[in-house]
């Protein structure tokens, strides 16, 4: 028998899905398109699809892109994201998962990940990758692995 879902958490998930569906139109043009999608079942089912004009990707605000790439570009923060992609966790659970870091260091790294929109604080002192971020984060990790030669 599955556990009952907290109504606020359920409402939050529904609002995120509606916001994703009603998001701004994605431009496409002569340069072609870049797209990604995924259906993921890690700590819940999440689906995501986006298509964007290839030339418009080059016009995305640098600050937003750098903030996310920098947040993911630290070993401990990447370990935290890996753990959170498997499910929400408390700071104590995250500290244990990354071994060798103090709770203070974990809070510092979570602040960076939260500012970048990669992680959010959930109820009960638990942190998580937002539902709308699961597929984009996995795609970023996959693309980095591809560029780094890990897929060959």
From TrEMBL:
Q: What SUPFAM superfamilies does UniProt report for this protein, alphabetically?
A: Winged helix' DNA-binding domain
Instruction: Write out the entry's keywords from A to Z.
Output: DNA-binding, Transcription, Transcription regulation
A Gene Ontology molecular function term of the record: DNA-binding transcription factor activity
SMART domains of this UniProt entry? HTH_ARSR
The residues covered by the HTH arsR-type domain are 67-146
Q: Quote the InterPro entries the UniProt record gives.
A: ArsR-like_HTH, HTH_ArsR_DNA-bd_dom, HTH_MetalResp_TranReg, WH-like_DNA-bd_sf, WH_DNA-bd_sf
Family matches, as CDD domains: HTH_ARSR
Query: What is a single Pfam family found in this protein's UniProt entry?
Result: HTH_20
Q: Which PANTHER family match?
A: ARSENICAL RESISTANCE OPERON REPRESSOR, TRANSCRIPTIONAL REGULATOR, ARSR FAMILY
What name does the UniProt record give this protein? Winged helix-turn-helix transcriptional regulator
Q: Which organism is it from?
A: Nakamurella flavida
């Amino acid at each position: 028998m599955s556990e009952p879902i907290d109504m606020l958490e359920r409402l939050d998930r529904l609002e995120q899905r509606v916001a994703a569906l009603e998001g701004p139109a994605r431009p496409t043009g002569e340069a072609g398109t870049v797209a990604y999608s995924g259906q993921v079942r890690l700590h819940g089912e999440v689906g995501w699809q986006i298509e964007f004009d290839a030339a418009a990707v080059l016009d995305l605000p640098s600050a937003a892109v750098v903030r996310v790439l920098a947040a993911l570009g630290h070993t401990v923060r990447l370990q935290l994201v890996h753990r959170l992609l498997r499910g929400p966790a408390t700071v104590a659970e995250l500290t244990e998962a990354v071994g060798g870091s103090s709770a203070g260091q974990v809070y510092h790294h979570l602040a960076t990940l939260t500012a970048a929109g990669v992680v959010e604080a959930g109820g009960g002192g638990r942190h998580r990758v937002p539902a709308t971020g699961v597929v984009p984060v996995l795609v970023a990790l996959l693309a980095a692995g591809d560029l780094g030669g890990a897929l060959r």
